[in-house]
Write a structure and sequence with these properties.
There is one protein chain. Helix content is 44%, strand content 13%. It is α/β, with parallel strands linked by helices. The chain folds into 2 domains: 237 residues, Aldolase class I (TIM Barrel), CATH 3.20.20; 66 residues, Bacteriocin As-48, Chain A (Up-down Bundle), CATH 1.20.225. An 8-stranded parallel beta barrel has the order 1-2-3-4-5-6-7-8, surrounded by 6 helices. It starts with a strand and ends in an 11-residue tail after the last helix.
Length: 326
């Protein structure tokens, strides 16, 4: 059983990939999308989104990272995929699922699900452009406004030569509103032969059980559920008999919160730093009462030095905090 960490723009970036993969249970990460809009991007554009390219395409914990491209021009995507492949990612992923209106207006993301023939041309072009040994995968939703072409789109992606398909079990129109329609993934699994990974609305071990049963898949992709409960992947593996039981509690998460903050200080622009740790705490408070208290304490704090002092107190109540530079 493989558990993948989802690509989520503005949330699951390199800092959270680094932090969450240190906990365990994740087999593979997919990066946030790299937007391709008509030009051949310089290497620095790929490294900015996927700094793991400087580490052999893996997080510091050793988990492979597949880099995701998003665009609608098969030739331009192929050219960029070839350059990206030369940098050594753990594969190339194609975004056919982003529901953002600004992306869809420009024909990217889930908008491509309205044109299965174009899906086929994109996957085919990228597959031809990268080494045969490098995996090419795709992530799609069930459709744009409805799911009537879900199987057709999946078949087009398979025919293009994709090695794996992740299906988010909602349409673009359904956004992130519950429920996820996992049974429709089962229909896709019946239509294609390539490996299918189920994704969408998996917040707990029980959700994972239900998703596996309804979708017929053996592999899962976790997104917001893993951000809210960083021990979820390990808990799912334990439930499936693939890992010993282990509870990831607040005491174990605190040092990782500190590690995440250090990454934010190193790589994120100053004005965005407080928002990043508050964003993660906002998810964590769904699972951990201590995170609720922390979120309330920091909710209105925008001075990185105050956040540093708060973290120092949590990690070592006897320690006099050393304030970070703003």
């Amino acid at each position: 059983m493989a558990i993948l960490l989802a690509p989520m723009e503005g949330l699951l970036d390199f800092a959270l990939r680094d932090t969450l993969t240190r906990i365990g249970g994740i087999s593979l990460c997919v990066s946030e999308f790299i937007r391709v809009t008509g030009t051949l991007l310089p290497e620095r554009a790929f490294r900015r989104v996927v700094p793991e390219l400087d580490q052999g395409g893996r997080t510091p914990a050793g988990v492979p990272v597949r880099a995701q491209l998003m665009g609608s021009d098969p030739v331009c995507l192929a050219d960029n995929a070839a350059r990206l492949a030369s940098l050594g990612p753990a594969g190339i992923d194609l975004n056919f699922g982003c529901p953002a209106k600004v992306v869809n207006r420009h024909g990217g993301g889930a908008a491509l699900l309205q044109d299965p023939e174009l899906l086929h041309r994109i996957v085919s072009a990228v597959r031809r452009a990268v080494p045969a040994a490098m995996p090419v995968s795709a992530k799609m939703r069930l459709g744009f406004d409805d799911d009537r072409q879900a199987e057709v789109c999946a078949l087009a992606i398979e025919a293009g030569g994709a090695d794996q398909l992740v299906v988010h079990a909602r349409t673009r129109a359904q956004g992130y509103k519950p429920p996820a329609y996992w049974h429709r993934i089962a229909d896709i699994c019946q239509a294609v032969r390539l490996p299918v990974v189920a994704n969408g609305e998996i917040w707990s071990v029980q959700d994972a059980r239900d998703c596996l049963r309804q979708s017929g898949c053996t592999d899962l992709m976790l997104g917001r559920g893993m951000v809210a409960d960083p021990g979820l992947a390990l808990a799912i593996l334990a439930d499936q008999g693939r890992h010993g039981s282990h509870e990831t509690g607040w005491a174990e998460l605190l040092p990782l919160l500190g590690h995440f903050w250090q990454l934010v200080l190193e790589r994120i622009e100053p004005r965005a730093r407080p928002g990043r740790i508050k964003q993660w705490l906002n998810y964590l408070r769904q699972r951990h009462p201590e995170a609720e208290q922390a979120y309330q304490q920091l909710r209105t704090v925008n001075d990185p030095r105050m956040i540093e002092a708060w973290l120092s107190r949590q990690l070592d109540p006897q320690r006099v905090p050393v304030l970070a530079c703003a």
